[in-house]
């Protein structure tokens, strides 16, 4: 299994120093295409995507997170730091199943 990064240029460059392959995205269309291609990769175990990139294709990312199996989707802050009002895993589960716990 391998890790794929979908992010801005600086984030992809940083991960490349650790040997992680990535795709630089600047527009929602680029992000959508990169995410679609990454999720189709049979050997993809983890897809790392910045919060800002994920936000541009939120519905697509959320649908994938609800699927069982791999790849696992991991949202990370970019170089600008965490996004204001970002969802926690608790918030996501609450919205997905409609139960507050």
Describe the structure.
The protein has five helices and four strands. It is α/β, with parallel strands linked by helices and 101 residues long. It has a single domain (2-97), classed as Rossmann fold (3-Layer(aba) Sandwich), CATH 3.40.50. Helix 1 (9-16) links the parallel strand 1 and strand 2. The protein is globular, with a radius of gyration of 13 Å. The model has no long low-confidence stretch (mean pLDDT 88).
Question: What topology does this entry show?
Answer:
Layout: E1 2-7, H1 9-16, E2 21-24, H2 28-40, E3 44-50, H3 51-56, H4 58-65, E4 72-76, H5 89-97
Parallel strand pairs: 1-2, 1-3, 3-4
Total domain modules? 1
Question: What would you call the structural class?
Answer: alpha/beta
Q: H/E element string?
A: EHEHEHHEH
From the alpha carbons, calculate the radius of gyration and give it in angstroms: 13 Å
CATH architect. name: 3-Layer(aba) Sandwich
- Give the strand content: 15-25%
Helix content: 40-55%
Average predicted local confidence, pLDDT? 88
Number of strand elements: 4
Uncertain regions spanning at least 5 consecutive residues: none
Short description, anyone?
Keywords: Hydrogen ion transport, Ion transport, Transport. Belongs to the V-ATPase F subunit family. The chain has five helices and four strands, in the order βαβαβααβα.
